[in-house]
Amino acid sequence: MNRLAHEFIGTFFLVFTICVASVYGKAGAYGPLAIGTVLVAVVYAGGHISKAHYNPAVSLAFLIRGCYISVREMFSFMAVQFLGAFLAALLASALFKGEAEVTATQLSVGPALVGEILFTFLLVWVIMNVATAKAVTGNQFYGIAIGFTVIAAIYTLGETSLAVLNPAVAVALTMVGKLSLSQIWLPIAGSLIGATSAVVFFNFGHPSESCSESDESSCRPIDGK
Amino acid sequence: MNRLAHEFIGTFFLVFTICVASVYGKAGAYGPLAIGTVLVAVVYAGGHISKAHYNPAVSLAFLIRGCYISVREMFSFMAVQFLGAFLAALLASALFKGEAEVTATQLSVGPALVGEILFTFLLVWVIMNVATAKAVTGNQFYGIAIGFTVIAAIYTLGETSLAVLNPAVAVALTMVGKLSLSQIWLPIAGSLIGATSAVVFFNFGHPSESCSESDESSCRPIDGK
Amino acid sequence: MNRLAHEFIGTFFLVFTICVASVYGKAGAYGPLAIGTVLVAVVYAGGHISKAHYNPAVSLAFLIRGCYISVREMFSFMAVQFLGAFLAALLASALFKGEAEVTATQLSVGPALVGEILFTFLLVWVIMNVATAKAVTGNQFYGIAIGFTVIAAIYTLGETSLAVLNPAVAVALTMVGKLSLSQIWLPIAGSLIGATSAVVFFNFGHPSESCSESDESSCRPIDGK
Amino acid sequence: MNRLAHEFIGTFFLVFTICVASVYGKAGAYGPLAIGTVLVAVVYAGGHISKAHYNPAVSLAFLIRGCYISVREMFSFMAVQFLGAFLAALLASALFKGEAEVTATQLSVGPALVGEILFTFLLVWVIMNVATAKAVTGNQFYGIAIGFTVIAAIYTLGETSLAVLNPAVAVALTMVGKLSLSQIWLPIAGSLIGATSAVVFFNFGHPSESCSESDESSCRPIDGK
Questions:
Q1: C77 within a domain of the structure (yes/no)
Q2: What is the value of pTM for the model shown?
Q3: Of B110, B156, B205, which has the smallest distance from its Cβ to A27's Cβ?
């Protein structure tokens, strides 16, 4: 329950910052910094409780990683992530809708899909390595590594694919009018493909760190507490 | 006494930077970075001595958290925080008043109040998790998490509520003319509501880490030394 | 094999970000931040597996450092680094070539060579100290130190030498037309000279941490693993 | 000897970055970021060897702190710091002198002196706490805390006092024409006053961590090895 509350809070603030700072333009050119810094903060705040997914594609990756989350938990996580994103977009829209004209970016399908796949692959590859690899258990740089990945992604892909990387963010961006409903499939498909590829690759490279060995130090299951 | 001195120094430099870099515009568009970086620095410098509150709303939160601070200590902390902010604003004003025209931002009450409540909730939720949660005792990322929260808050809320999040900063901003006296209640009320909500939420989710168990490792009382 | 895959991924994303964010201008003035943040991320993600070279000049330096890498491994590392850079430049070019006109910067040989030598010296001096010095074994700041060096290098040298510091990046920049083929020798020579000087200097100052003592804690050989 | 070499390298790159990125304007508005990031990098690279002073005012502070450095060592440190700054300014000037017109900033004595004293106080207060306080021995955030202090200082004070904070940097800035010779006393006096005040304040608040107790864990003397 506490884990779900933390997933809700983290996703809410991530999405609220995305909507207000970037979509409604309150941070001007500094939107990516606002988003990256808030992500670093909420990852460090919630990481020890819920592993700080804040992203349905990341929750799916943790399921495939094995032993961090059960199928039922994954769907609970996703539900509160979408709820947090929904409420954040709703509040941002209620507060700032009139102040800036938001027009949906028309994404060019090929580059946008490639971009979303590539950088969600990068994001999940980074997360799997800094948050689940046995060799760096107990490290404290995970928040910086994850947040900085997103800063780089937004600066690099912002114009091309909006650097969504997250199905819950895709819903929020559609709600506030930045992503057209007809293209919402694009970041959703891209992020799920990218995330799945990254975790399959990771599992392939870390065969001895799979769930079956039931080794607490290589893998901290949330399920069985 | 040393704790009070550190609270004074930290709050002084935080507020001096806010006034000079942002209000008097010396940092141009980089004000939020100046404020965030100085906050990271003073949190790391003073954290091991006074827990680096630098904010009456945070001191109130530590009181409600239980066992970190007594009522009497809280008022001493608040007194030196207000004193530090007062002197910083006075010095900044003496040095730079003539160089830039400062006009009070007229805040729109609803959005500003919502913004201050939300992001002070975020700030205190982050602080409680990184500075008091048993699971991450001894972590070294607390300064980055706290400073980055404030960077995100200023970029996101700067235009809407000034992203004050701190009653002592509210007083300073009123002194230098950035916040009108008739609206000073707004960030003060918002930050106290947000901070209280966050710590109540935190305590609810961490029942076994309350003061009553008198466990040194879950809670380092300042009172009884 | 897993090490080579990680070298490939890290170099690929580093070079893709360089090409898209900076060369094709997607990040505008924030290119250096995009490059620096992605480097921090991939160093933290891959460091525990391949030592995160992502740079043939750095692999050469690890060879000279002694005991981290064999000659044969060094050439494998270099091969996948060049392959990653080649594919990243190819993909970036396929996606964005039409959108921005890229003209080769005509480097002034003297300053550019001095700049490349100096800052690759700095980069490798930083890497040797944070990633191989016995006194800071197990530290977690290596990613920040390395990424921040590159941010500083690009801001300082960007106009003078393109701040390449990396033969694989030199190839990629030539492929996308930012570096003329007739000047590609310049960052390659500069980075190899700078890297070699730095590691020779480091070995001179750390005689007791050479390979011959076969001390696991001072030196983690990849070879015999 | 190795310590002196590291002090030389760190100061050289700090000053070279200051001169090229800021004085000769290669980093445009991003000069403070270039300087702050290179400082973080060289502090992490050299901290375990020489304590990474890179600043005569800081070396003086370590002398007053007690047991970190002897008088003779302090003068050796200062000598190589001035030498590094001198050569960095000379090289920067040789490479870029013709490309940008540098005019000496005419500092207003009062504000500039106050600014230099205040922020060197802050810098040394931060350094003493993160690099010498017993309570945070072995921490890894010292580089970030120190580098971020300087970023904040430059954004806040850049226009007022040039945010020199360092007698060796003062010499370099005079050499490249950014600081007039008639005002070089100003940052030198300000930084020495600020540094001395900070360390005296620190020693007063940490009486049990003075040298006399000869406790290795509270104080790592460089002298007696």
A1: yes
A2: 0.94
A3: B156
